[in-house]
Amino acid sequence: MRHLISPLDFNTEETNRLLDLAEDIRTHRDRYSDICRGKKIATLFYEPSTRTRLSFEAAMLNLGGSVLGFSSVDSSSVSKGESVADTVRVISCYADIVAMRHPKEGAPLVASIYSDVPVINAGDGGHQHPTQTLTDLMTIRSLKGRLDHLTIGLCGDLKFGRTVHSLINALVRYENISFVLISPPELALPDYIREDVLVANNIPFREVNRMEDVLGKLDVLYMTRVQRERFFNEQDYIRLKDVYILTKEKMALAPADMIVMHPLPRVNEISVEVDKDPRAVYFKQAQFGVYVRMALILTLLEMVPEAEHA
Q1: 105/114 Cα distance (integer angstroms)
Q2: Using one digit for the tens of pLDDT, what is the confidence trace for 240-289?
Q3: Fewer Cβ atoms within 10 Å of its own Cβ: the N or the C terminal residue of the chain?
Q4: 309 pLDDT above the threshold of 50
Q5: How far is 243 from 269, CA to CA, in rounded Å?
Q6: Positions marked catalytic
Q7: How far is 58 from 15, CA to CA, in rounded Å?
Q8: Spatial separation of the C-alpha atoms in residues 293 and 85, rounded to whole Å
Q9: Contact partners, residue 217, CB within 8 Å, separation at least 6
């Protein structure tokens, strides 16, 4: 039995195989519409989510399975003081696979230790978000045609952004990847990512404060929101929340084939006028997330059709 707690739990060969499966699902959805009949996914979401939770639910329903779980702590026995370990022990009796989001780093790992069914980390605090990373990889590969020889711009909250941390960890395994880190000093990439991942793997990177200075050099621009829920101080959040706003005028500085990604939800960091630009792919990215989660469910349940192994 396997779990997905970190984006590194799958090696590059396994990741590429999963992305191939997701692409096949995207192209031939009818082939997969009944494959998980009788299977259940439990979505245990200890903090608010729209896209990730509904994406998991849509993925299982698209496979012919069913869904149970909770979308807030208040509607679960957690409000009575039940531990993650006890919750997942019980849920293992009801479901075939679990997707868990939790505000505390490491909670899904604890769940995987006590679970009798596969556990998927759907985001733990500011730590990891591996299914978003797989979604991001599918988006880049599908729209750019490759996962190597790319310059990736990461903009906004690089300190608390778990999607950014996970994506960096995944992309450094591919050839000739470089990063441009665009953030104010207060939201700069943490040392443990900068030193232990980028420097340790000899990955080229630049740290800049102005988006306009580097837009012309990017293959991918990955925007993130400044996350109010990660701040201890409301004044700091207000001061930093609108530092970077991508506008139509700034998009004019970017290459014609650059793509703009965002894990969503968006607040003010991308102007709605950018939505009409064909390089804005964040809503397509959200759709890819369903295909990736369908592929992941099949992989962890060991239900990939034999033809896909060939």
Answers
A1: 16
A2: 555 788 999 999 999 999 999 999 888 889 999 999 999 999 999 999 99
A3: C
A4: no
A5: 8
A6: 51-52, 80, 101, 129
A7: 21
A8: 24
A9: 151, 180
